[in-house]
Amino acid sequence: MTKKIKAGALQFVVLLSLLVFFLMGMFMLRAHYSNQQVNEVLVQDRLFDNLESVKVLLKNDPAMSERLGLQQINLFKSPQSIVDMNVFDWGVYKVVNVRTSWRHHVKEESLLFGDNIWDEERPSLYLTDRNRYLSVCGETWLGGPVDLPALGIRKSYVDGTGYYRDKAVQGDIRRSEATIPAIQPVYQDIFEDQFAVDFEKDSVMLWEGEKVDSLKASFKKKTLCLWSSELISLDYITIKGNVKVVSQKEIRVKNGVKLDQCILAAPIIVFEEGFKGRVQVFARDSVFIGKNSHFSFPSVIYMNGSNESKKLIIDNSVRFAGEIVVMGMNKNDTPLLKVGEGTRLEGFVYCDGTVEMEGDAAGSMYVNRFLLKTPSALYENHLLNNRLDVSDLKSSYVGVSWFGNSTKKQILECLF
Known about the structure:
Elements: H1 7-60, H2 62-66, E1 69-74, E2 82-90, E3 93-102, E4 105-115, E5 125-127, E6 134-137, E7 141-142, E8 146-148, E9 153-155, E10 173-175, H3 186-193, E11 203-206, E12 214-217, E13 224-228, E14 232-234, E15 238-241, E16 243-247, E17 250-253, E18 258-271, E19 276-289, E20 294-303, E21 311-314, E22 319-326, E23 336-339, E24 344-357, E25 360-373, E26 378-380, E27 382-384, E28 387-389, E29 409-415
Parallel strand pairs: 5-8, 5-25, 6-9, 6-27, 7-28, 8-10, 11-13, 12-15, 13-16, 14-17, 15-18, 16-18, 17-18, 18-19, 19-20, 19-21, 20-22, 21-23, 22-24, 23-24, 24-25, 25-28
Antiparallel strand pairs: 1-2, 2-3, 3-4, 4-29, 25-26
């Protein structure tokens, strides 16, 4: 006799089967999304490793960051390890835009590169041999090594002030040459490029004196160039990033201005008292920095051009961290660098003219000659109460290899 199954029991079995299928589907869906999430993390990790690997390559192979333009590298010979790079000059430094992607995943960074200058054995002071002594007076501290004329160094008196230390140089003394080391010609080209305006390559904005609160541009986009044939006076404005300000006459920067990683280029550039920021400055005729100003690292002042009497005047109690180059194009040029009392320069200083030094320098100074002015007389190649010592410079400092090719690069910072 056939046993009949009640309809209610059949419905229960069907519902139970549907519940089991539903739960199995949920578990399978969860496993799928879990695996997908893991894959997402793995891809992101791979892209991150790509960026870190490229950074290591760029640091150890300077030629990579010296080749301007677009480059592509396949790090590990797989589609997931392809990295695209775009290298371009930003003042005396290099910007490298790095981008790596896989399917819809993208990672990119903009990196500012400088040179590892610590393998160059730079001196605290390089003074050209003009058949003159270097005379030290007062509390002058001269750290070694130093490159000095054949006549050497001597203790001296200035207006009745003698030299009070036991040793004139706190380190090794080496022989200097009759001429100051030459800056690489490529930096002359870089200098001239700062004054050029490319209306196709850059986003050019004509300055007409209008009020602008801020100018910001990412290094992943076109350079924003603010240009004028007349005076540009900046006040209560923030300028940050991939921005150049170019004037054919003069740029005046008041202390209400905030500058960060931008470039200024003009024949004459004036910073009012109390300015604070970091900027690269390119000028042909003169630069004046008012007292109590603070230029954060990495700042640059680069002066060149055909003007025979170019000058950089740094007033009292200024702090400057970065690179300073004051040079002439012709043999008879006599550029002047004047450093006020209480001013501290950190980094690299180069002047193939005359230096009037009343402040201190942590880093390296390359000088054609010193001139000391007192109420009673002028003294050539005299230092009075100065401190010049390359060992005062932080070991993390990243500079520019002005005299030769760099053997190693360093990342200054990640840009926006």
